[in-house]
UniProtKB/TrEMBL annotation:
InterPro entries: AKR, AKR_Detox_Biosynth, NAD(P)_OxRdtase_dom_sf, NADP_OxRdtase_dom. GO terms for molecular function: oxidoreductase activity. PANTHER family: NAD(P)-LINKED OXIDOREDUCTASE SUPERFAMILY PROTEIN (PTHR43364:SF4), NADH-SPECIFIC METHYLGLYOXAL REDUCTASE-RELATED (PTHR43364). The keyword Hydrolase does not apply. Keywords: Oxidoreductase. It comes from Paenibacillus nasutitermitis. Coiled coil: none annotated. GO terms for cellular component: cytosol. SUPFAM superfamilies: NAD(P)-linked oxidoreductase. This is Aldo/keto reductase. It comes from the Bacteria. The keyword Oxidoreductase applies. Pfam families: Aldo_ket_red.
Amino acid sequence: MQIKALGRSGLAVSELCLGTMTFGNTTSESDSIRMIHQFMEQGGNFLDTANVYVNGRSEEIVGEAIKDFRPEVVLATKVRMQTADHANGAGISRKHIMQSIEESLRRLKTDYIDLYQVHVWDHITPIDETLRALDDLVTSGKVRYIGCSNFFAWQLMKSLACSDANRYVRFISIQPQYSLVSREMDREMISLCLEENVGIIPWAPLGGGFLTGRYTREEPSSGRLTAKVGESSWMLRATDRNFAILDAVLAAAQELDKTPAQIALAWLLGKKGITSPIFGASTLDQFADNMGSVGWKMPDEIWNRLDEASALPSEYPNRFIDKFARPL
């Protein structure tokens, strides 16, 4: 597995990141630990969790799995969501951050987090308060690097500018939803990250399971897409456009003798600016399937075909700006 630098940092991470949202829920503790160990044996070193995954149980399982080789792991977790039933039990205020880091460290059985991420923007807390608190955590040694997730482009740029102006640590990465069927980040976020050298670690790279090919145009009978609401709900995924993209994925899979999941992940691995797609698995078979996306390169012709099939329509101001682009 290839190793990459994460954003504007010297932090070396594997080209795939193992997501642990299902650990302790649809994935048993024993299978979760086996996945982590197999991931490490196959060259992976990047693990992502969050303090709200399965009410903290995911962090506990990850901590147990890595306790004997903690220095080898790049450990990422998140803060922001509701973790206690009181007014300060959510958000990215100094109070909630300082409480949450201690709880995560305890569950993860470690004294530091490699990448501590803001799970989503907080409209109540000023970003300078958040960044100062995170800067203090880095200074104290409890956190090595910071990142964010689910931000607008303006929110990320405001955060970077605040860090630069106050000499706080900078976000080195962002964790957005991004896949062949969810390319909204192409509008502004991708170009911002390339300009500012912010690493991109996409979540839901398989569109909540849609790109695995297990679903047809009929109503799903099982799986995450049966949810009535949420980013992976059937209402959002089952569109004519998405099924046309899935048809292109299935054709590429047949042509290359790969699985649809491997094709969808390999497309992301070939996308400029993407550092490490975060894949999850509920079973060991799903894990093995996803790991088959590395160790080979998709032919340019097929990659371009998938890219064109999933590209967003040309929109203002991009089409206007591109019209007047100056050649070098």
